[in-house]
Amino acid sequence: MTEARPLGADEAAFIAVARSGDPARFALITERHRRELQLHCYRMLASYEDAQDMTQETFLRAWNKRESFKGHAALRTWLYRIATNVCLDFLEKRTPLPAELPDLGFELRYLQPYPERMLPEDPQESAVARETIELAFIVAVQHLPPRQRAVFVLRDVLGWPASKAADALELTVASVTSALQRARVTMREQLPGRRLDWRSPATHELSDDERGVVRSYIDAHERNDLAGLTSLLRDDLRFAMLPDPGTVTTTAGDAVDGWISGGLFQHGHDDWRGITTTVNRMPAAALYLRTPGDPEYRLFAVAVLHVVDGKIAELTGFDAAGKPWLDLPPTL
């Protein structure tokens, strides 16, 4: 079930590198695929740092298996196959969720934002439709068992035919078809009302509506305008603050009351600045807090927003400390 195709320039070059055993030449020819492979690993694992590690493991396995590459499939296909199986091996060893959290249904504690600078430069080639990198999609994928997850990403995100996915995962075509059908049912359940045609073109740009809501969200923090902040939130807000587990659906008023009871907007946590940014191709606010006696505003959190009809329908907050890969200034 290999991909019938003539030997291309990349494949011929890689075979020559494999025969030479030159690691520098190997790195040169495989490095161009790093971003798309890392994004693939992120969709599988939901963690930017784990995706980085598994991409490195992919290149290590590719180096160790370089002599097995005969050019029957495209080099890119061969690397994706290795990356997929690296992720599946990793998921088998990942610590499962505690038994006392049975209702979560997904591994939110592993969710990390994805920096825009690390997205592939060619969206069409690397299947980076906006919807397939948004947090809701990444979380929904985590509901799938690992092998269903791999089938779904290969078939419905990357657009691989069933035979190619079956070859990569060492399954039958019938098994791949069955797994995909089950995965699609789960994805429809987890993303009600969202478009599910992942391979058709999608805009990557934020709308004016989204940009305006982010500016208003930051402004409400800077002015400690709790009424203004409440007015930006839908009454069926879905809220998560990582690394705390779980997502809650709450009213706008209850959400703000909860933040206040947790200490936000109280003395010592009431001097804010913010900058507009994007992560996972979504509008986001990087929030900076200045505590008494500190001359600088220090990076506190990143709030990633899903905006529907001018209101924040979903808000996922991330502790931004210790994440230099987000490329945000540590102080203002």
UniProtKB/TrEMBL annotation:
GO terms for molecular function: DNA binding; sigma factor activity. This is RNA polymerase, sigma subunit, ECF family. Belongs to the sigma-70 factor family. ECF subfamily. GO terms for biological process: DNA-templated transcription initiation. Residues 31-94 form the RNA polymerase sigma-70 region domain. Interacts transiently with the RNA polymerase catalytic core formed by RpoA, RpoB, RpoC and RpoZ (2 alpha, 1 beta, 1 beta' and 1 omega subunit) to form the RNA polymerase holoenzyme that can initiate transcription. Keywords: Sigma factor, Transcription, Transcription regulation. It comes from the Bacteria. The keyword DNA-binding does not apply. It holds the Pfam family Sigma70_r2. The keyword Magnesium does not apply. The lineage of its organism: Bacteria, Bacillati, Actinomycetota, Actinomycetes, Pseudonocardiales. Residues 137-186 form the RNA polymerase sigma factor 70 region 4 type domain.
